[in-house]
Design goal:
4-stranded antiparallel sheet, 10 helices, 7-stranded parallel sheet, Aldehyde Oxidoreductase, domain 3
C-alpha cells in the first residue's frame, strides 16, 4: 500500500520535537549503532514498510526486514537498521509503537479470519470506519495484512443508506421512492440499505437496492431473515453487522450471509515488540 496520507515527519516530531536531550548529554552524537526490532510472541507483522521509511528519513540504512502480512515467531527480527546513534535512538520508540500497534490489529484480524473461514471460507470479513480518528490509513493496512478488507474506504466510495439518512429524507417510503432514481444516477455503484426488518429489506430490493446490511440480529434471527430474502432475491448481497467479535464470529459465519462487518478488530492489544540497540561493528 502507498500510504501518502501518513505524515512520517509528524510521527517522528511527536516523540522528538527538537532533539533527544538524553543522547545529547551522553555525547552519543556520531557513534554508529545497530537497531533490531523483534517480537516476543507469535504475530502477523505490519508496519515494517513505514518503519523503513522512518529509518530512511533519519539516515538509517535498513539491513533486513519482514514484510507486512508475514507471520513471525518469538525472537524473530522484524526490521534491522544501522546508522548514527542519535538517529537510531530517535527512531526507537517511533518504529516500536508503529509496529506493535499495527501488528496487534493484523494479528487479531488473522485470528478472526481463521475463525470465520474455518466455518465458511466464502464469507468476506469487512471492517467499519470506526477506527480511532487519525489512524485510518495504518488501521486499514493492518486489517488487510491480517486478511480482511475495509467495508468502505469512505463515504465517497459507496452508497449505504442508514436510518439516519431515512429520517432526514422524511421516512422510509420517501427513501423507497428515491431508490430507482439513485440506481439510474449512480449506475455503476451498488446500493445497500441497512435494516433488520425482512419486509423492508424485500421492499428495498424490489425498488432496486442491490443488498442489505442486517444490523444487530442474533444468528438464528439472521438466518431466518436471510432465508426469507434469498427465496425472492437469491443474488442479493447480505451483510451482517453489529456486535460481531471473536466470541461469536463462527456462529455468524454459519449463517447464509456474504460478509461480516465488524469494528472489533481495531481494538487489538499491541503485540509485545522489543528493540535491541547496540554499537555497530
Amino acid at each position: 500500500m502507498y500510504l501518502a496520507n501518513v505524515d512520517f515527519d509528524a510521527l517522528i516530531r511527536e516523540d522528538v520535537p527538537y532533539f533527544d536531550l538524553t543522547s545529547f548529554e551522553l555525547g552519543l552524537d556520531h557513534q554508529p549503532a545497530r537497531i533490531a526490532v523483534f517480537t516476543r510472541e507469535d504475530c502477523v507483522v505490519c508496519g515494517t514498510e513505514e518503519a523503513r521509511e522512518i529509518f530512511r528519513r533519519l539516515g538509517i540504512e535498513t539491513l533486513s526486514m519482514k514484510w507486512s502480512g508475514e507471520e513471525a515467531h518469538p525472537g524473530d527480527e522484524l526490521i534491522v537498521g544501522q546508522g548514527e546513534a542519535t538517529a537510531v535512538l530517535t527512531a526507537w520508540k517511533v518504529v516500536q509503537n508503529l509496529i506493535d500497534h499495527t501488528s496487534g490489529i493484523a494479528t487479531k484480524t488473522g485470528r478472526f479470519v481463521k475463525l470465520v473461514h474455518g466455518e465458511n471460507p466464502e464469507i468476506s470479513v469487512l471492517t467499519t470506519r470506526k477506527m480511532y480518528s487519525g489512524t485510518k490509513a495504518l488501521s486499514m493496512k493492518a486489517i488487510m495484512a491480517g486478511g480482511a478488507l475495509p467495508h468502505r474506504l469512505g463515504t465517497s466510495e459507496t452508497i449505504l443508506v442508514f436510518q439516519q439518512h431515512i429520517n432526514l429524507l422524511g421516512g422510509f417510503d420517501r427513501m423507497l421512492a428515491k431508490l430507482p432514481e439513485i440506481k439510474r444516477s449512480s449506475c455503476e455503484k451498488k446500493i445497500l440499505v441497512e435494516t433488520g426488518d425482512a419486509e423492508k429489506a424485500l421492499q428495498c430490493l424490489r425498488a432496486g437496492a442491490d443488498g442489505i446490511q442486517i444490523e444487530k440480529l442474533g444468528p438464528q434471527e439472521l438466518t431466518e431473515m436471510c432465508n426469507a430474502i434469498r427465496a425472492e432475491f437469491p443474488k442479493a448481497v447480505l451483510l451482517a453487522a453489529g456486535g460481531i467479535n471473536e466470541n461469536n464470529a463462527a456462529a455468524y459465519a454459519a449463517t447464509p450471509i456474504d460478509g461480516i462487518v465488524t469494528t472489533s478488530l481495531y481494538t487489538a492489544k499491541p503485540v509485545d515488540i522489543g528493540v535491541k540497540i547496540v554499537p555497530a561493528e
